Structures are given as C-alpha cells and as structure tokens.
Amino acid sequence: MAAAEAADTQLMLGVGLIDTNGEVLWVWCYPSTTATLRNLLLKKCCLTDENKLLHPFVFGQYRRTWFYITTVEVPDSSVLIKVTHFSIVLTAKDFNPEKYAAFTRILILHSFYT
C-alpha cells in the first residue's frame, strides 16, 4: 500500500540537460524520454532560435506532461570552452512554475560550484 501511495504522490517525472557545443545537443536525461518529447523540448529551450534571444525560463504542457526549462549562459571560466549556454529541463505531472523554476536555479548553481 505504501509503495502505491508513494507512486501517486511522485510529481516530478524527469530531468534533462541541453547544451550548445557548436550545435544544440540533448546531452543527458533521467529517466529516458520519447523522441517526440525530446524534439519538442529542444525547440522550446530557445537555444535553437535564429534570433538568439535568451528566454531564461519557459514552461508549457504537452500531452498532460508539464515541462519547465531554465536556460543560462556559461561563464567564461568554464572548463568546457565551446559550451556557451545550457538548459535544465524538468518534466512533471503538476503545474507549479515557481517551484520548478527555483529547483532548476538550484541545479544550475550546483553545477557552477561543484
């Protein structure tokens, strides 16, 4: 019974990483995602935009799955010289932009200082 209740309360579905290294790449995700959702998220992350307008936080819904994307510029002191920007992508069952924006900012800060 406890396992079924825990599964019902699990709201976050996955996390992913997109970066630019000469081209926009879907670098990592856990757990795996469908190719259709991955392609949609690549388009929504604003790293593929021709006008290069950076949208720091984007969210939306696709087939009853909410997505939250935070995109940042990589500091010049980065170990990966060619990576200029990256996006953290979260997918979830619930609509809560404030919570997921804060969580993605925490993940980004952790990636810069570890």
Which helices and strands, and how do they pair?
Elements: H1 2-9, E1 12-20, E2 24-30, H2 35-44, E3 57-62, E4 65-73, E5 85-92, H3 97-112
Antiparallel strand pairs: 1-2, 1-5, 3-4, 4-5
Verbal overview:
With 114 residues, the chain is α+β, with helices and mostly antiparallel strands. It is built from 3 helices and 5 strands. It has a single domain (13-113), classed as Beta-Lactamase. The chain has a 5-stranded antiparallel sheet with strand order 2-1-5-4-3, with helices on both faces.
Estimated radius of gyration? 15 Å
What class, by secondary structure content?
alpha+beta
Number of domains: 1
Strand order of the largest sheet: 2-1-5-4-3
Order of helices and strands, N to C? HEEHEEEH
Helix content: 25-40%
Strand portion, in percent?
A: 25-35%
Question: Helical region count?
Answer: 3
Largest sheet: 5 strands, antiparallel
The general outline is globular
- Reading off the top of the CATH hierarchy, the class is best stated as Alpha Beta
CATH architecture: 2-Layer Sandwich
